[in-house]
Amino acid sequence: MARLAMGELEAEIMNLLWDRGGWCTPRQVHQILEAERTISYSTVMTILVRLWRKGRLDRQPAGRAFAYHPIQSRDEYAASRMAGLLKTSKNRPAALSHFVAGLTSADQKQLQRVLDTRKGGKAR
Questions:
Q1: Do 39 and 30 form a contact (C-beta atoms < 8 A)?
Q2: Angle at 97 between CA 92 and CA 99, to 5 degrees
């Protein structure tokens, strides 16, 4: 079953967890979010549980609550989203061509280095 893109609050919480690096309790996430906007603790809990059920977060007991941590790094998540979008294309070569054409020159060079390394070739 394909996963839907994260909603705005889900994305904000994921970014917060990626930025923090370690395990975070709902109370910690709530306190950080509350510094910028009014949000209820129960909303934070709902989003964390939703992300856990979607397989985006791992959780472990932390006292009477759970602490949450992303399953994938931000970069791994971005790569999986790109791969997922590519799978939906009926013309993969065209989709890849458009993707590469939209990259900056520096990104194209980096992509070429990655491809060269994967082939066992020399990096440029």
A1: yes
A2: 95
Placement of tokens 């998540």 in the chain: 77
Under 8 Å between Cβ of 25 and 17: no
Query: What distance lies between CA 112 and its chain's CA centroid?
Result: 24
Contact at 8 Å (CB) between 25 and 62?
Answer: yes
The C-alpha torsion from 55 through 107 and 112 to 3, rounded to 10°, is: 20
Which tens digits make up the pLDDT trace of 2-61?
443 458 999 999 999 999 999 999 999 999 999 988 899 999 999 999 999 999 999 999
How far apart CA 68 and CA 28 sit, in angstroms, is 10
Evaluate if pTM is beyond 0.85: no
